[in-house]
Amino acid sequence: MKASPTLASNLQLVLTDLIELHLQGKQAHWNLVGTNFRDLHLQLDEIVTAARLFADDVAERMRALHALPDGRSSTVTADTRLDGFPEGLTSTKDTVKLITARLERTVKTMRDVHDEVDDEDPTSADLLHAVIERLEQLAWMVNAETMAPTAAVTEPAAK
After folding, report:
1. Structure confidence by residue, pLDDT tens digits, 3-22
2. Which of 27, 54, 91, 105 has the most CB atoms lying inside 10 A of its own CB?
């Protein structure tokens, strides 16, 4: 099978956000300070590792479909849907919010392109399913770091 331009473009959007998630996760990891530092520091490495591995899976899927992945920094900077990560030291509480938002945004990109991907290539859609499942789990876990036990868990996340 050969990817259409639409399928290639959709997978490229996913790839771009996964690469950016990896980079922002490392930025957060290096500049984290505050309460529960060590646990969050290690959790960020788990997120970074997942994002890096998923980016590789998406890029290799693109190559299997005769599409060309573009992971150049200029492409990632120009095309990512993730907001930039703040410069300097970041508190653990702020980092939880920032990383949760970026995990959720990365998942949103995948959900935005899912139906078009699935229409053309259910195998690529299956890959997206696995990535979505894991990133949503990681978002839940990192967000739980600062969640109050009285929080309404069924309400949508704050934007």
Report:
1. 999 999 999 999 999 999 99
2. 54
- Collapsing DSSP to helix, strand or coil, 125 comes out as helix
| 69 occurs within a structural domain | yes
Domain that holds residue 58: 5-146
Q: Using CA atoms, how far apart are residues 106 and 58, in angstroms rounded to an integer?
A: 13
Of 149, 124, 110, nearest in space to 63 by CA: 124
* Residue 159 maps to a domain: no
pLDDT tens-place string over residues 20-65: 999 999 999 999 999 999 999 999 999 999 999 999 999 999 999 9
- Residue 25's contacts (CB-CB under 8 Å, 6 or more residues apart) are 44, 45, 47, 48, 51, 99, 102
Look up residue 25 and give its amino acid.
G
Would you state the torsion angle of the CA atoms of residues 92, 97, 100, 106, taken in this order, to the nearest 10 degrees?
-120
Instruction: Using only the alpha carbons of the chain, give its radius of gyration.
Output: 16
Tell me the CATH number at 34: 1.20.1260.10
